[in-house]
Amino acid sequence: MAERRCEICGRPIQGQPKIVKVEGSELRVCEECAQFGREVARPRAGSERRARGRAPAPRRAPRPRRSRPRGVDPFSEGYEVVPDYAERVREAREEKGWSQEELAEKLGEKVSVIRRIEAGKMEPDVDLARKLEKVLEVKLLEPLESTGSEASSSGDEGLTLGDVVEIRRK
Ligand SMILES: [Zn+2]
Fold first, then answer.
1. Same domain assignment for residues 80 and 28
2. CATH code of 107's domain
3. Is 50 a domain residue?
4. How many whole angstroms from 128 Cα to the centroid of ligand 1?
5. Is there a contact between 45 and 32 (Cβ–Cβ < 8 Å)?
6. How far apart are the CA of 72 and the centre of ligand 1, in A?
7. pLDDT at res. 65
8. Which of 6, 22, 113, 150 is the most exposed place for a label (fewest CB within 10 A)?
9. Do 87 and 27 share a domain, yes or no?
10. Total domain count for the chain?
């Protein structure tokens, strides 16, 4: 029986390999690496008729695709919250003569959220920052200038092959 090695970390797999999906390709991985991808149900014997005209899945992992920025919510693409958001929010609110409670109410948020934002302990997400901008008539978002903003990660594919390569290097 051939030894099975984890396609992510390269270690021999004890017992049954886990099959996870990474960027659409299925990898046989060890228990530990299974958490990086999405486990897929093992195909049952007899249910293989759905391979319509497709070549059998390659055993090797496909070539890594161009890596792309991750963790970017498409809605926030190209924008970031200014570093001094806390002061800007507090000053704008005080200028309007609103209490934190009043501001929270206008935003439909909890007062604790406003408190944390004004204390600089919580950076509002872009969605909330936009609401704050509107309600307080203040600028909280600025366009990202640095990298080309071709961020298009849907964020639900789990691990990318770029990550796999990184894990292998460890
Ligand atoms: Zn592994």
1. no
2. 1.10.260.40
3. no
4. 39
5. no
6. 27
7. 54
8. 150
9. no
10. 2
Which residue reads 């926030």 in tokens?
Answer: 76
**DSSP string for residues in 95-110:** HHT--HHHHHHHHT--
CA–centroid distance, 7 to ligand 1, in Å, is 7
> What is the reported pLDDT for 93?
97
Q: Are residues 123 and 164 in the same domain?
A: no
| Structural domain contains residue 60 | no
Q: Determine the Cα–Cα distance for residues 159 and 102; give it in Å rounded to an integer.
A: 42
The alpha carbon of 33 and the centre of ligand 1 are apart by a number of angstroms equal to: 4
Distance 167 CA to ligand 1 centre (A): 9
Supply the pLDDT for residue 35.
Answer: 80
**What amino acid is encoded at 145 in this protein?**
E
Whole-angstrom Cα distance, residue 70 to residue 80? 15
Q: Give the CA distances from residue 20 to residues 124, 159, 160, in Å, rounded to whole numbers and listed in that order.
A: 34, 10, 12
Residue 86: inside a domain: yes
Give 54 Cα–ligand 1 centroid separation in angstroms. Answer: 28
> How far does the centroid of ligand 1 lie from the alpha carbon of residue 46, in Å?
29
Q: Residue 31 sits in which domain range?
A: 1-44+153-170
pLDDT score at 64 = 56
SS3 81: strand
Give per-10-residue mean pLDDT for the chain (170 aa).
82 88 84 76 50 55 53 62 96 97 96 97 94 96 66 54 66
Q: What is the 51 CA–ligand 1 centroid distance (Å)?
A: 28
pLDDT at 146: 55
